[in-house]
Design goal:
Radius of gyration: 18 Å
Strand content: 35-45%
Shape: globular
Helix content: 10-25%
Number of helices: 4
Number of strands: 18
Number of domains: 2
Largest sheet: 18 strands, mixed
CATH class of the largest domain: Alpha Beta
Structural class: alpha+beta
CATH architecture of the largest domain: Roll
CATH topology of the largest domain: Diaminopimelate Epimerase, Chain A, domain 1
Order of helices and strands: EEHEEEHEEEEEEHEEEHEEEE
């Protein structure tokens, strides 16, 4: 079974061409096996690209632990590159179906290949029950969250995935690796949550580190960067056009006041292709 390794701002996934390959019986097990960075290909998860009845392609994604994810802003840019570069669609403006709905994307190319993509991430979800979280407010803004004997002021939104954003002086290992997994599993988040630690540099720049639900710390999170910018605007931390500096690169995020839509622009790169020997692994890897 052929696969393609791709990354967007360091957020790396393994992609399978469902236009050509047969279906996979047990995608969660395959995602765990292939994503393993010691015994597999290595990645933040697995993405299956298939035909869609309502769009140019459909994106089905699983995190590194095998759990299903609704959306990934970095992965969908790579899906657009995959579809356009392989002529699965012949136009630069694409529609990609996700578990969060159909999103539109604009591809930008150089030297005959897509290298940047702008995604209309649609409108943020700001109702607590739909994020989902039990914290008060629609959405919760600077809500108090008790974790590991400490108190954090958090702002929660959904941009296809649930996000819990906290603003800090510096996003340290202690916070990201120590507090991040505890917030992910906190009882206030019935579907678990992605956790963003944000350092505000100015009205137009932030630094972000993220603990992703089901994957641990990743070098970038597109829906997280979008959610963090929405949270920052709601909490009065910065403006609506922000460059978010992540460990794997930069994302340009704009939350438009007129349409309430979020636009994200960032890189997409193919790393390598290969052959995986087992379509359905006997073990979880």
């Amino acid at each position: 079974m052929q696969f393609t390794k791709m990354e967007g701002a360091g957020n790396d996934y393994i992609y399978l061409n469902g236009f050509e390959s047969p279906g996979v019986d047990d995608i969660p097990s395959l995602a765990r096996a292939m994503s393993d960075r010691h015994f597999g290909v290595g990645g933040d998860g697995l993405v299956l690209i298939t035909p869609s009845e309502q769009a140019d392609a459909r994106m089905i994604m699983h995190n590194a632990d095998g759990s299903r994810a609704e959306m990934c802003g970095n992965a969908i840019r790579c899906v657009a590159k995959f579809v356009r570069d392989r002529n699965l669609a012949s136009h630069d403006e694409l529609a990609i179906e996700t578990d969060h709905g159909v999103l539109t994307l604009q591809c930008f190319s150089s030297n005959g290949a897509v290298d940047r993509v702008r995604v209309n991430m649609s409108q943020p979800i700001l109702t607590s029950a739909d994020i989902p979280t039990t914290l008060p407010g629609d959405p919760p803004i600077n809500a108090r969250l008790e974790v590991a004997g400490r108190s954090f002021d958090v702002t929660c939104v959904s941009t296809g995935n649930p996000h819990c954003v906290t603003f800090v002086e510096e996003p340290t290992d202690e916070l990201v690796l120590g507090i991040g997994p505890q917030i992910e599993m906190h009882a206030a988040f019935p579907s678990r949550v992605n956790v963003e630690f944000i350092q505000v540099l100015s009205a137009t720049e932030t630094v972000m580190r993220v603990w992703e639900r089901g994957s641990g710390e990743t070098w970038a999170c597109g829906t997280g960067a979008c959610g963090a910018v929405v949270a920052g605007v709601l909490a009065g931390k910065h403006g609506r056009q922000v460059t978010v500096h992540l460990r794997g690169g930069d994302l340009e995020i704009e939350w438009r006041e007129d349409s309430n839509e979020i636009f994200m622009t960032g890189p997409a790169r193919e790393v390598f292709t290969g052959e995986w020997p087992h379509a359905t692994p006997a073990t979880d890897g």
